[in-house]
Every structure is written in structure tokens, then in C-alpha cells.
Predict the 3D structure of the following.
Amino acid sequence: MASFSKDIITSRQNGLVTRMAKLSDKKYRDAEGLFRIDGVKLYSEAIKSGISMEYTFISESKQEKITYVLADELEAADGTVVFVSDEVLSKLTDETAPQGIVAVGRKFAVHEADVPAEDKFRALYLSSIRDPGNLGTMIRTAYAFGVDRVYISDDCADVYSPKTVRAAMGTIFRQRLARVNDEIAFAKRMESAGCTIYAAALRRDAKKLGSFDMPEKVCFAVGNEGHGLSDEFIDTCTGTVFIPMAEGCESLNAAAAANVLIWEMCRAVRSN
């Protein structure tokens, strides 16, 4: 059970407040091993998913409401609950309309890239996705449709960014994530394990999504919002795939494209 601080922090220059406010910056998240969680729903999801809390900040004006709505979660949480003024809470978050609670959790696990041992396997590889909102949306969709693993390149947006966490809406605490250091070696290992990798890319020999039988072990790769996947990586993949669209439409937003690929990749599993 969390312990409750007796004092109410009212100074924005308070040492703890200043330190925790720096978690908006990735280098401080990395140094502290902590990340920020904004709002009632995300806090509840984090606790239910077993995220360990360092601090839970609750605004003085919403203390009664928050402690009532989140009574069970606060009972289950660890760390310290600190009550602060509204002005102090606003320093701890970039939300324009804070809900009265900002928490600081210890980072959840992002595993090293593994190869699938399962007979049936659905995976998504995200390469150089720079927008944290896009990254969070892709993770949310992957979890919703039962993707077994989301692989993320080292140069993607930070999974612990408040924007990524917010866009994933709690699924980021439950979706299995794995980090890829060398995507060429990763693709070769996946193929050696019998996993077909399709790069989302428009090439002459690209297959039209929906026109072929989905392999039982498959991974779709989606690239950077601006320049897509590297040619070297595409050449290493089993093949390429494109999403059929109306004439005159050249491309989809990276997150939208990933959503379509995920749906088609997992459709056969759901129908069986």
C-alpha cells in the first residue's frame, strides 16, 4: 500500500517537483528509470497492469474526488502519495486540462528482440517511427487485435514518452514489446525461424494486401512517416506488400497504414 505524505506541496520550486517535472525529457527518464502517467484512466490501467509507482501526485482541489474514484488503486499502489496545489500539478504535466492526478512509475520492460517459438505468430515491426502519438496508436491497435509482439527499432520515439503512453491508452502496459538494435540481423533471424516478413513498400513485385493467404508466422514492417523503410531492410525481407487505395491517393499516414495491416494480418486468426 502507498504511503501518504502529510504535507501539501505548494511551491513550484520544490526540489521533488522540479526533479519530477524533468521527466518530460527523455534523458531524465533514462537517467531516473522513471516515466510519467497522466490522468485517472491511465493511472488505473497502470496499477491493474502491475506498474510499480514511485510517486502519485494528487491536486488539493480534487483530492476528495480522486481518492474516492481511485480508492482501490491507491490501496494497491506502492510508492508515496503526495498532495499538491493545482499550480504545482500543472508543472508536472503538459496536459491542458489535468484531471487532478499525475503519477511517476518505474519503467516497464521492453525486451530484447526474440524470435517466435510459437507455431502461429503475428508480429509488427516499427522502424524509425518518430511521432510518439503514431507509435502509441500502433501499439494500441496491435493489442486490440491480438498481435503477439511489437518490435520497435532503437531510433523510434520513446515508448515511455507521456505522448506515447497517452496515445496507447493503457495497452502499452500489457502489449509485449521488443527492441531491435540491428534490423537487418533481426530480419534474417526471423526468417530463419520460419517467420515471413513483409515490408510495407510499393515495389514492382509487391503483393496487394488481401490477395494472398496469410502465413501462420508473419511479421509486417512499417517504416518512418517521411521516408519509409530503408532499401537494405526491404531487400532482406521475404517480400513487399501494398495497401490498395482509390486512384489519386498516394499513401496513408503511417499509423493508419499499420492499422490496416494489423487488421488483415489478424483477420484469419479471428475467423478460425
